[in-house]
Each structure stands twice: as structure tokens, then as C-alpha cells.
Amino acid sequence: GAGTGAPAGQDAEPPAPGRVLFPPTFSVSEIKNKQRRHFMFLRWKQQQRKEKLALRKKRRKEREALGDKAPPKPIPKTIENQRVYDETTVDPNDEEVAFDEATDEFAPYFNRQTVPKILITTSDRPRGRTVRFCEQLSTVIPNSHVYYRRGLALKRIIPQCIARDFTDLIVVNEDRKIPNGLVLSHLPDGPTAHFRMSSVRLRKEIKRKGKPPTEHAPEVILNNFTTRLGHSIGRMFASLFPHDPQFIGRQVATFHNQRDYIFFRFHRYIFKSEKKVGIQELGPRFTLKLRSLQKGTFDSKFGEYEWIHKRREMDTSRRKFHL
């Protein structure tokens, strides 16, 4: 068949049935027939996998033979551990960072002067999926209230929220019935973050989901928010939840930042014994990507932006992250 066998001019041994020998210069893309090309590509991938597995087994045997004298395992290269150094990475012991934290807009929350009270709203005339997402989000964030917009402009909602002691406003936007954006505005003085939202999974779409969440205040876990910008976003998420988690509820909300994508998960711990613990996902789940951070409350016309994601300028390296 096309692309199989040994290079011309050599007395090749007949290949074993089921094993394809690809010549060193072979390229699957040279095969003109699409089905044949696809088939050969799958065979090539299969062969690559077998070779990789054989090499892994060989290495494992060598390590077992050497026992304690085996060299330490090499650390695999990943995009994260090859990350380009960011000069704004936060040192928790830095005096400047401590001063900023003591004086920023979230300080009243962290000093326990305010109790979070959240308003969750939508874009105009939301459809079923967005409505259900907002309702489920309100069961994750304690002391949150869902309000449907009915054509009211955000500029007019914000003063009403401040008058009624709301500390944060969450707006879930949608496109073609699918939730695709989230605006988080800290009241009364900002800042306001705009996120792109994707991979939304509602509770009923999660496999092996547990019973619905209880009304206990969950524990909050923030992972990998290491730069100054990431630090601000992490504090913003933290200030949505009550200070003191009720551990008796065993619920945990996780914001995990990986390569500037923020993955949200909501779990319950299940203690099987004193040493074994399992987790059960409760939902919903979604992924956020920061688009901009604005000083003050929502103002699309005259707002002053602290940070805007500019793809052409900022995404020059796959190993450069901003959070």
C-alpha cells in the first residue's frame, strides 16, 4: 500500500502482520487519498504510542534494577513551569503589597467592616439556560439575590444597589441563549472586571453530582493568583463570600487559575474514614478569562481601565501569563 514498506534499494525483511514500517522520509501528508491518509495517520499514531510505552517500560526496569542508586526523575517541561518571569509577581511579605491591601477597595471586607451582599442580574430578556445558571450561582454564593433586568440600564441599577447596601454586582451576559460573559463590579467604588465565560455546565449536566448544596457558607480556595493583577482578581472573588466558612457544610468553592483561565468548581467533601476523603462535584462549573479591569463601577463610556487584554500585543509568547 502507499507509504508502507522499507526505502527502495534495500532487502527488507517482510514486516510482521499488523506492524507498519514507515521509512525515515515518510510523510503522511503526501498521500493523496483522504481516507487512506487518515487511516495511515491513525496507524502512525498507534506506532508512536507503542514506541513511547516500550521506552517507558524499559526506563522503569532500569530504575528498578538500580534501586536506590537510580537518578532522580526528570521534571517534565510544561507551559506552566516554563513560564516567562513576570516582574509584577507578588511577594506576600512585601511591605508595599501589605500597604496596598490595607488601603484598597476590598479592605473594608477583609477588615470585617462589611458583610458581602451580592446582586446577580442578567442581560436583557435572558433565556432559560442563563436564568437557570444565575439561580444555581445564587445557591453557591451566600446572601446573593437574583434580579431580572427588564430593560433597566446598569448605570441606573448601580446607585439602587449601593442604596440597598449591596457590596457586589454580578451581571451574566449571553449570546444565542448561551451564557458567554460575566461582569463583576465591587460596590460602591469599584473596581469592575469583565470576563469572557465559557464551558458552562449546569447541575444536571454534571456526572455523578451530589445532592443540591446546603445553605452553609463554603470554604473558598484561590489557586495561582500570583501577579499584582492576579492578586486583585483573587481578592475580588474572595470578597463575594462570607468571612467565616461553616466547615460543618463541607462545601468548597475553588477558583483555579491556570494559564490565565480561571476554572470555577464547587465541591463537597465526603469523609469516608479518618484518613480517606473523597470529593463530590455539586455544580455549576464554568471557565473565565479576564478581558479588562476597570477602576470604579461599571462605566463603558468614560471608565478608566487599569488593564485591558490586547491579544495582538500581549499574546506574543505562549509562556507569558498575566494573572
TrEMBL record:
Domain of life of the organism encoding this protein: Eukaryota
Domain Brix: 116-299
GO biological process: maturation of 5.8S rRNA; maturation of LSU-rRNA
Subcellular location: Nucleus, Nucleolus
Chief site of localization: nucleus
InterPro entries documented for this protein: Brix, IMP4/RPF1
Coiled-coil parts of chain: none
Record's compositionally biased regions (Basic and acidic residues): 62-71
Protein's job: May be required for ribosome biogenesis.
The protein, known as: Ribosome production factor 1
